[in-house]
Design brief:
This protein is an alpha/beta fold and about 325 residues long. It contains 14 helices and eleven strands. The strands form two sheets. Strands 1-2-3-4-7-8-9-11 form an eight-stranded parallel beta barrel, surrounded by eight helices. A two-stranded antiparallel sheet has the order 5-6. The radius of gyration is 19 Å and the shape is globular. The two termini are about 20 Å apart. The relative contact order is 0.14. The N terminus is likely disordered. The structure holds coenzyme F420 (F42). Coenzyme F420 (F42) binds next to strand 3, helix 5, helix 6 and strand 8.
Length: about 325
C-alpha cells in the first residue's frame, strides 16, 4: 500500500482540534503545499469533533491522506466509526485512513466508560469494520461486540486501518491485523523495543512515529518550545519507558511540578524540571539538521512514516514550512 506522494520516508502532521477549525485548515494547506503526505486529527470528546474536522479537510485538500488519530471503539460503536470514515473516504476520493486504539483511559473515565477489555475491543472492532467496509452484511458475536446482519447501505471503498499501540500485546495485534501502527514515541530505542513485539510484518506495513516535534533555526528556541509538551509525555509515560531512558527519578519532579502548576503554581517551574535529555528522548526538537539526523536514526530502526505532533514549533506555520524546505527533501 502506498500513500499519496510516497517516498522512502513519509511525513505527516498532527493537529489537536482544540483550536478553531479554520486554523487547522490553514495549517493543513501549508502542510500540503510543503510536501507532507498525511494529516492526522486527534480524537477526544472534549475537543472539536475529529470527523467534522476531517470532513472540512477532505473538501479543502487534494492530495494529503486524512487520518483520524485515533478513534476508539469504547465510546463509538465500530459500525459508526466504519461509516464515518467511509464518508470521509468518499468525500476525499479515497484518501482516508482510520486510526483506532484503546482510547485514553483518563478521558474515558470522565465519561463513565470503563477501560474494559480494551485489547479485545480493538481486535473485534477492526474485524467488524473490515467486514463492513468490504461491503458485506455482518453477523458477529464477539466477547465485546455483537452485530446482527448489519451492513452499510451505500457504495463503500475500503480504506487502510492503522492501530495506535503502546503496550506489547497491542503492538503485536497491530502487526497482525493493521495496515500500519501509530506509536507515540520519538526515540529509536523505543522503536527497537516495539519491533521486538511485532509478529511477521506484511509487505508495506507502515510503522508510524507519532512524535512530538519542535523545529526552529534556533536550536535552543526549538527545545524550549517543546518543554511543556515533553513534561506531559514524561508524566504520562509508564515506568518501563522511563527506566529504559534512565529518567525515573527525574520524572517525579516533573509530575510534582505539573501538579503544582494545575493548582495555580507556575508553568515556568514545570519547564525548569524538564531536562535536555528528556526533550531529546520524548520529542524530535532542534534545528532542521538535528531533526533530519534523528529521523535518519528512526529510519534505521524501521520507521517508515513520521508524524509531526505538538508543538511543531513556536510558530507552527513557519515550522511547517521549514520542515517542508529542509527536512522532507532530505528523504526524497
Ligand atoms: N487516545 C485517544 O483517546 N485519542 C487520541 O487521539 C489518541 C491518539 C493516539 C495516537 C497514537 C497512539 O499510539 C496512541 C494514541 N492514543 C489516543 C492513546 C491510545 O488510545 C491508548 O490509550 C494508548 O495507545 C495505550 O494503550 P495500549 O496500546 O498500551 O493498550 C492498552 C489497552 C494496554 O494495556 N495494552 C496491553 C498490552 O500489552 O498491549 C494489553 C492489555 C490486555 O491484555 N487487556 C486485555 C483485553 O482483553 O483487553 C484484558 C486483560 C484483563 O486483565 O482483563
Amino acid at each position: 500500500m502506498k500513500l499519496c506522494g510516497a517516498m522512502d520516508m513519509k511525513f505527516g502532521i498532527e493537529f489537536v482540534p482544540n483550536v478553531k477549525p479554520y486554523e487547522i485548515e490553514y495549517l493543513t494547506s501549508i502542510a500540503e503545499d510543503s510536501g507532507f503526505d498525511s494529516v492526522w486529527i486527534t480524537d477526544h470528546y472534549n475537543n472539536r469533533n475529529s470527523y467534522s474536522i476531517l470532513t472540512l479537510l477532505a473538501i479543502r485538500t487534494v492530495r494529503l491522506s486524512l487520518g483520524v488519530g485515533v478513534s476508539n471503539p469504547l465510546t463509538v460503536h465500530p459500525a459508526i466509526i466504519a461509516s464515518a470514515m467511509a464518508t470521509i473516504n468518499e468525500l476525499s476520493m479515497g484518501r482516508a485512513i482510520l486510526g483506532i486504539a484503546a482510547g485514553d483511559k483518563t478521558t474515558l473515565q470522565r465519561l463513565g466508560v470503563e477501560w474494559d477489555k480494551p485489547l479485545t475491543r480493538v481486535k473485534e472492532a477492526v474485524e467488524v469494520i473490515k467486514e463492513l467496509i468490504s461491503g458485506k452484511r455482518v453477523n458477529y458475536s464477539g466477547k465485546t461486540i455483537k452485530v446482527n446482519n448489519a451492513g452499510l447501505d451505500y457504495s463503500v471503498s475500503p480504506y487502510p486501518i492503522y492501530i495506535g499501540a503502546q503496550g506489547p500485546k497491542m503492538l503485536k495485534l497491530a502487526s497482525e491485523i493493521g495496515d500500519g501502527v501509530l506509536i507515540n514515541a520519538s526515540h529509536p530505542k523505543d522503536f527497537k523495543e516495539a519491533f521486538k513485539c511485532f509478529g511477521e510484518l506484511k509487505e508495506g506495513f507502515d510503522v508510524v512515529a507519532y512524535t512530538s516535534m519542535s523545529v526552529d533555526k534556533d536550536r535552543e528556541k526549538a527545545k524550549e518550545s517543546a518543554k511543556i509538551v515533553v513534561a506531559f509525555i514524561v508524566a504520562g509515560s509508564p515506568e518501563i519507558v522511563l527506566n529504559r531512558h534512565g529518567i525515573t527519578e527525574k520524572a517525579k519532579a516533573v509530575r510534582e511540578a505539573l501538579n503544582r502548576a494545575f493548582a495555580g503554581g507556575s508553568w515556568a517551574d514545570v519547564r525548569k524540571t524538564v531536562s535536555e535529555d528528556m526533550v531529546d528522548t520524548f520529542s524530535i526538537s532542534g534545528t532542521p539538521e538535528d531533526v533530519v539526523s534523528r529521523i535518519e536514526e528512526l529510519k534505521k530502526a524501521g520507521v517508515t512514516h513520521v508524524v509531526a505532533g505538538s508543538p511543531i514549533g513556536s510558530d507552527r506555520a513557519k515550522a511547517i514550512k521549514l520542515i517542508g524546505k529542509k527536512v522532507i527533501p532530505a528523504f526524497s
